[in-house]
Amino acid sequence: MSKDNLKVVLTPSLAPYKVVLLALIAAYCAGILPSKTNRPLLTVIVKYIEGPSVLDKNIQTGSLPSLFEILRSLRESCLKAYPEEGSNYANDIEIRALHALWTLQSLDSLYSFITRAKSLLVKNYREGKSFIDNIPSSSVPKYLLTESSFLGSFVLNCVSSFESLEFDKIDLLWKSFVKFRASSKSIYEDRLQLRGSLPSDLFGAAKDGDDPHLLVSLFDKLPSLSIEAKNEVLLISQEDLVNLLEYQVKILENYGAVTTPEFRAILNNMPQSETGKIPTVHYIHYLECLREADYEGAFNYLHRYFDYMMSYRRTAFYHYALLSLATLYATFNCDGEAIRAMEESISVARENKDVECLNFLLTWLFNYLKDRPNLTHEFYVSNDQLLQFLKSRTSNESFKSLHTTAYQSDAVQNMLSGGSVVSTLESLTKSLYISVNCGNDFSSFVSHCSLASSFWYRAGQFDLAEIYNEIALDSSRSASEQVLIQTRKAYLEFTQGSIEESFSRLEKQQKQISSDLRLSKDFSNHQLLLLTEQSIRASNYYAAQSYLEKLEAQDYPNIDMQGQHKYLLAQWNLETGNYSAAHEIFLETISTFAKRETNKFWFIKFNLLNCDLFLQSDLSVRMLSTSIQCLNLSTSSGYFILALESILRITRALINVGSYEDAKAVIDAYSPLFEQSADLELKSKANEYKAAASIHLYKQRQNKLSKEDKFTVISKIIKSLEIAIDGFKKISSFKEIENCLVLQENLATLINHTELLQHASKALENIKEKIEQNSTSLY
Amino acid sequence: MNQSLELDHLKFQLREATELLGSLGLYQGSKWCAEALNGIISNDLSKNLSSDKKSDSDETLSIYDLEDNEYDNNETTPVNDPLYNVIFKFPKVQSKINDKYQFAKSLFDCKEFDRCSQTLNGLKSSKCIFLRLYSKFLSHEKKKEEETEGVLGQNDNYNSTNPSIPLILKELDQLFDENNNHKFENYSENPFLLYLKGILLLRQKFNSLAQQTLIKSLKIYPFNWSCWVELISSLNNLDQSLQILKDFESFFEIKFLNKSNFNNNQIHPIQIIVKIVKIVINQEFFQQSMELYDDLNYLLQIFPNFSYLKTQKALISYHSMDYQEAEDLFDDILTNDPLRLDDMDIYSNILYVMEKKSKLSYLAQFASSIDRFRSETCCIVANYYSLKFEHEKAIMYYRRALTLNRNCLSAWTLMGHEFVELKNSHAAIESYRRAVDTNIKDFKAWYGLGQAYEVLDMHLYSLYYYQRACTLKPLDKRIWQALGNCYEKLNKFKDSIKSYKKVLNLNEVENFDNSSIFFKLALLYEKLLNSDKVYEFMKLCYNEEINLNVKNDETAKARLWLSKFEIKNKNFELAYNYASDFNHGTSQEIEEARSIAREARNRINSKLPNL
């Protein structure tokens, strides 16, 4: 049946599946089931009364339980409690439950069944006792429920909400109950070996001659029947729906789970008057539109949501409304509007003295503005000041989640501004401590792990970065978060030289992101960045150009992505000989987001790129001084990888100016660090420079060296070159291989080694051909 | 001319009436005529009618059964036959006026009554005048309804009158004035203007004047069923009703039937209408007679598929407490016309009385599926709730029924019953009062009023209402019993005895337990110090136990009384017999009986000679 024909009807509390729960409770109270079944039976009853929880291990998308699902849960629960006899117990319960359901043969019997459930209830223990004392022992039920008990209040709620239903709703309840149990008919018949006949109606007609067959047959003559048959009526209790919606909002917000088509059909087919009663429906639509990057839809639904909230006089929600609006604007990069909404939100939160919201707003603002250093605002004087404020204001017990976020923000700020490693680690440790003690808030812990992973990645400790990634992956239940963690893992693999693994990992994520447009955009950007980098390495400049163009068309607010993109663009220009364009990019970035004060990492990174430009312009001295500066900055901020890159630039500059001895000394001194680093490109480059410096030194000193020394030196050079060539081969860095082969040829000529010379020349020829081929081919 | 052609005549007249009443916005009347028309036996089957044989096939014929060919070019009306003269026809008007009328009629259909009335302003044709004044009346009725804010609400003043009525009546009177007569039309002889005047007078509570006007209208055009309905509702006693019927019969005989071209052996369509009216009146006054059944069966042969007539038959069975027969009849009506909700509330009453919960629940479901917002549906649902002891919800649905149709006859009474169940006598009294104000012939409402006052210990009031109920349904033993009880409370023992004796007369059915009545009578005679009669009735009460094997408090008490009486009269054996088998009663009574038995046995033993 098409879900377009679904008609959703809301009742205050009752739904067909609750009739099953009532039947199970009645069976439990009557004591007709073996007492061993009580534990699994009650587990299932409680589970369905409580509804889905975000703390469940298995996150499922919100949906109403079906009869099969309940029966399956009963079976699982029985088997869990009694692995051996569980199956028999499950059969017992199943038969009882199905029998109870199939004895209800008319609306009247359903009516009697539900209203008779009242007899399970007593007001309190005393009343129950006097009740039991006053009736014959043969008719005493095994258990009675007090009205305030968990099961008692459920029964009371069911009965009283049934009694408050109008007749047509009772009729609908009956019809949807009939549909609900329909699928279990064959199981029931199999279990009881009934064929075609149903049990007697226990709760219905008791009087002779009360035969409704004539009227039953008349239902077929109703002209509306054919129309109704096309419309599937789904009766849901408002109570359940509110719970489900809240659950759905949580899993959408936290885990980005996909809304099932069934649930989506329920939401879409709810009548206007009903959706007014439950504004959360609009919020779910908003979140979904946000996922699909449907700006207009998201905007409309967000407004609709808050309009309905307002109609319930929830004016206190105004600043939250504005915050959501700001988030919406920010998601779609409408910075001006986002800032305006945020300003208003902050002033309303201040007016309402909502400290929690205010802290959240400021945290949000920090994260938002850190990615947009060019945005002018008057919210606060400096990031440090804001973070100090947040750290002190959120120390309260009730703001734990915000408190950990404040420390994480502090760490981010430190990492951006190039603060000391100690202070970053301090903030990270504090954040970890709070998030671990934060109870069930996994999201702040996962974000801590992600941050720690980034930190260790920049610090060159790839193993630690990997460990934190693994922890985050294990702890996270959000699909989008997991995709991002996997992307980070792919970056790590890429850096370590496992290019194929890296891309295949990214490929595997494609399935996860198909439904989330925003995430897929982010993801494809990451993929493009890696592809560009790889294409540049492989001298495949046309392909790199096309990737860069694609990236250019994207509008992404993440500062690191932006930095990476600009960096690759400049590098591409450098490789293709557009030095002036590369220089322009350098100048532009250095004056915008990669300022020394605001974003030290990218400042250093671009300065190192500038060193490469100096190299091309033969300004080796400037290159030397700049790389020394970069080295100093990197070491003070713990940017280990950048420090290594600086060392390489220094070595290169020294080689260029002819200070081979110094160059060799530098590279030898830092050789263990390069070895320790898992960055294959840096390691290979270090070996290449080492070989280059050594060859020059050998040329100068060959006459002074003994035969053994010569042999040792030459062996070392060849070994370094081999390591370098192997490394570069692994990452397909053809230009660097060419450089290495040139060095090898030079060495062969120097030592008159014909075989080596021939080998090097041939390889050089091949690689040149390859480079030529790659640089002219389109993809 | 044969019987078949006579049926054609009836069909012709009903067809004309359907069209005419529909064109005037008298929809209920039009619907009734059309239902009757479609319920008539087909010409082929009618041939069997004269031989008084019932065809098997007509039982299965439903009004929804289709003809083989929907287009019939053969049907012709013998235009020259005087029998096919139209009984009443509005004079022809200019096409321009007709256009205006059509416009106004469409506005009327859209319930834009004021606009409809405005459109027809100044037009002199009687048809235009009728529609103008009728829509004016309806417009104010609608506004009055809107102002009341619900049934039994704060502004629900059922006595408030429609302010337009005096104005419309004044205008009608001016039109009827001979001096003002239009040159083409005599307004005072227009049946519909007379009908309108009749209903307005009824609203003004000028009952007899209204009846006269309605009778005049019907004499001119007897196929206006709406007019018959109003006339029947205005009748409040059977004698007067029967007199009016007689009057009609003789009038129509002179007017139509004694015409030279009419064969006296045939039945004129107007006679059939009068027969139907006769059945309805008898039904409404709870009459049962062989003649009535004969007439009904005769009509059902002519109209085998006319659900209205079947309903009347079911109602007669219901009033005679033959619930099974009534249920079967309603089942038949439902089978043939499942979507007809008219009078289904009565069916639900029957199921309620028979305590057929399951069937009633299905009926409620079924009616809800057809139309949730029909007063009949609400009454059915309310009856279901009442049977489930959900009296508050039942009241809610009765209120809803009344909101949908303020003149829903049974809802007021049934709501009164619900209030009684909730021990809210004051609200019950108001409901019952509204019921009798809507339908003065509703004996249940009068009876309910009596019961409500009885609960409040206002026996004189109670007596009055029971008497009203009794006038309406003199053969109902429940009312006589209630009357007897009331008289007793008012210390009118002789009247009480008369009432109880009436109950005994009505209970003259075999194997019917009269023990409680006998006991009551015995007690009443005891109060009158008539010991012979006391003995007689105590004995009769005791005999019920012996003959019918009924054991209840009354028979036990009678047994005890008799044993005491016999011991006093030294009939120890009899006393012993009465007392020794005493085993039903309070512990005190049993103890007393034992001591009497002991004493009697001692006395018997002491009389016996020594062995």
UniProtKB/TrEMBL annotation, chain A:
GO cellular component: anaphase-promoting complex
Pfam families named among the record's database cross-references: ANAPC5 (PF12862)
Keyword Transmembrane helix carried by entry: yes
GO biological process: anaphase-promoting complex-dependent catabolic process; cell division; positive regulation of mitotic metaphase/anaphase transition; protein K11-linked ubiquitination
Keywords linked to the UniProt accession: Cell cycle, Cell division, Membrane, Mitosis, Transmembrane, Transmembrane helix, Ubl conjugation pathway
The Anaphase-promoting complex subunit domain, residue ranges: 282-371
Keyword Transmembrane set for record: yes
InterPro entries: Apc5, Apc5_dom
Transmembrane segments: 15-33
UniProt xrefs under PANTHER family: ANAPHASE-PROMOTING COMPLEX SUBUNIT 5
Family: Belongs to the APC5 family.
Protein name: Anaphase-promoting complex subunit 5
Organism (species): Wickerhamomyces mucosus
From TrEMBL, chain B:
Domain of life: Eukaryota
Per-repeat ranges for TPR: 409-442, 443-476, 477-510
PROSITE patterns to which the protein is assigned, alphabetical: TPR (PS50005)
SUPFAM superfamilies: TPR-like
A cellular component annotation (GO) from this entry: anaphase-promoting complex
Claim: Repeat is one of the keywords in the record: yes
Biological process, per Gene Ontology: anaphase-promoting complex-dependent catabolic process; cell division; positive regulation of mitotic metaphase/anaphase transition; protein ubiquitination
SMART domains assigned: TPR
Positions of the Cdc23 domain: 10-314
Key words, A-Z: Cell cycle, Cell division, Mitosis, Repeat, TPR repeat, Ubl conjugation pathway
Pfam families: ANAPC8, TPR_16, TPR_8
PANTHER family xref list: CELL DIVISION CYCLE 16,23,27, CELL DIVISION CYCLE PROTEIN 23 HOMOLOG
Name of the protein described by the UniProt record: Cdc23 domain-containing protein
Organism: Wickerhamomyces mucosus
